Amino acid sequence: MAYAMPHLDMTDFKYDYLIVGSGLFGSVFAYRAHRMGKSCLVIDKRPHLGGNVYCNLQAGIHVHQYGAHIFHTSNKKVWDFVNAIVPFNRYTNSPVANYQGKLYNLPFNMNTFYQMWGVTTPEEAQKMIEAQRAEALSAMKKAGATEPRNLEEQALLLIGKDVYEKLIKGYTEKQWGRKCTELPAFIIKRLPVRFVFDNNYFNDKYQGIPIGGYNKLIDGLLEGVETKISTDFFENRAYWEKIADKIVFTGKIDEYFDYVYGKLNYRTVRFEHEILDVPNYQGNAVVNYTHAEVPYTRVIEHKHFEMFGQEVYDVPQTVISREYSTEWKEGMEPYYPVNDSLNNTLADQYRALAEKQPNVIFGGRLAEYKYYDMAPIVEKVLDLTID
Ligand code: FAD
Ligand code: UDP
Q1: Which of 111, 158, 191 to mutate to test the pocket of ligand 2 (most atoms within 8 A of CB)?
Q2: Which residue, judged by its Cα, is nearest atom 53 of ligand 1?
């Protein structure tokens, strides 16, 4: 990627916008503001631009350094916008789950039900699931509950005990580091259940990966914009606050307010990247390991995001990443906001402070403490009024 260095003699120059963070929120904002004739400076504390969508080229393969990123949306405006910056490929996410060496298709669909029970028609599958749902419902009623009180109850009502025990429980408890009985029901509601043979993980109309990798998207968005990497806003806050009329802040909201109410919590992921001397390791981009005893949650094989059919064999090596989900500590990357009432209440207090802050726009996953996918971030910035 090419980085434009800013003038650092700022005494005679003030920017319209200082944008803290070059992830998708900051980069789409910079793109729009720059096109409107606003002067912008983007700073990022990491040694590269792009935030979590940054890719690193290894063995001729774009490696998603901060975890697999699949762009998906039903919003045509968002899809057209990103495709005008860089065309996207035809990648369709269809992960496979490995439970004790046996493979199951995801999301839960007729292929999964065939693999689980040998059923071959939607009617047979529905019967199996209905029987297991009825069991779950009567257990809940016995316990005096009318609504599912946690993720376990929600999953049992949605899909029954066989799928829950083999494909949900172990994976979810590894991913969140908490028992399914202690997690909110809504986490699992977004997983589709289908009585058709369709392994497409998303229900969205459009999905894909930028051809040539996500760095092309970020480079395109930031073309002509001044940027400065390896620069932490908080290391010289007083200086950066004077450099522009307005600030777009996409870092941690609790850090911005000096942790006045206390620290927010996050989940993080440790990635173990490995280059292997085989052209095709697992035959799919995403394989989830759903048994509790396998320490990682999933293995990503990056070449399958951008190489299809024979193309896979034209590149002799492959790069895989094992993902280990862990509790966040200071110094680690804060990936996922923690969805519990303690953290949500704390985040609300910070959001209330943010609303009163003049000339600062707080946006994105860290500054809003909200688990956003990429497309809603782009949509949000496209709908912002920039003046
Ligand atoms: P970020 O990309 O985090 O950007 C924030 C930037 O601010 C960072 O570059 C950071 O270095 C910088 N920054 C922070 N503090 C400071 C500071 N003090 N000074 C200077 N710079 C600072 N979405 C999907 O749609 N599909 C997926 O498949 C998908 N997979 C994901 C997998 C993982 C493991 C994770 C963590 C996220 C995934 N997402 C996915 C979500 C996606 O990453 C986010 O929606 C998007 O990247 C958020 O953009 P952002 O600009 O808010 O944040
Ligand atoms: N999930 C699961 N088994 C899987 C995949 C997902 O139980 O093989 C559950 C898990 O609780 C996860 C939720 O479904 O938190 C949502 O999954 P998704 O892949 O949408 O989560 P993401 O990794 O994108 O946050």
Answers
A1: 191
A2: 23
